[in-house]
Amino acid sequence: MSVVLKPRLLRPQKPIAADALGKFSFIIHEDSPQHHWSGVGCLSIKSFSGGEALYNVGQGRFRVEPNSYLILNQSQPYEIIVDAEKSFESFCLFFEDGFAEEVQYSLTTPEPKLLDNPQPVQSEVTAPVNFFEKTYPHDDILSPALFRFKAELQGNKDDELWINQQLHEILQRLLQIHRGVRREIESLPAMRASTREELYRRLHRAKEFIAASFDQPLTIDEVARVACLSTNHFLRTFQVEQIQTIARTQYAHLDRITVPHGQNFPRPVSTFPTNPGPSTLPKGPAQRP
Q1: Which of 74, 88, 262, 275 has CB 3.0 to 4.6 Å from 128, enough for a Cys bridge?
Q2: What pTM, to 2 d.p., does this model score?
Q3: Which fold has domain 2-186?
Q4: In the chain, where are the structural domains located?
Q5: Per-residue pLDDT tens digits for 212-261
Q6: Which H helix or E strand runs over 194?
């Protein structure tokens, strides 16, 4: 089932490419064993039940499983690959360009100003909200609204007002998640705020790449390239205690690293080895949780 909404009043400042998403909001709720699409996306939430999907996003790679959802930003080119033996459920929300900014404006603007200007004037329209592109474990903030929307959509698929209300609520919750991530970033070692944010994005890109490539041998050098860091910088960064704390649960499924000559040695789940040689990460589904 696909539900397409009419375009909203708030339009993006820049014209949208003919083949890009973002001209209107829509929802895809389907069961299928196979799917492939590539192009320029809009702000979207990807979730699946009973199976998993692989997303290639620039140098990054994301594997979306039933216990998580993926956030991709407006104007982000990506490719989705679904190749399963049996059909499974997908539930993906696509937001019209400017929708998140409108919701953020309504949440951050004083009430008197909202009465005078319910919509942001063109001069106040800022750049799109730049969410952190990664998989998020299902939580008690966004996930309940997402599951409820999915359960009730079939009976309300022709009620555009109701659907827009649900999308508004989900975006409010997504912005709350976004604020939580920013607080997490502030706990990183003392450095410029822009540096902390960029480092966080790069390290999570590497984490997602490892998780999505569990069935392939990976070198430390390759993972560092995905993070757009030198190998030494990548390894040195993961020795920082504050970053280790954030990464602790993220790497729990990788409990061993193979070094040259086939020798194995255990290591803390939140760190990488300090030897910057051609080490490889483990492969095979047996290493997954």
Answers
A1: 74
A2: 0.76
A3: Jelly Rolls (2.60.120)
A4: 2-186, 193-287
A5: 887 777 777 888 888 888 888 877 776 543 334 334 444 444 443 333 33
A6: helix 193-212
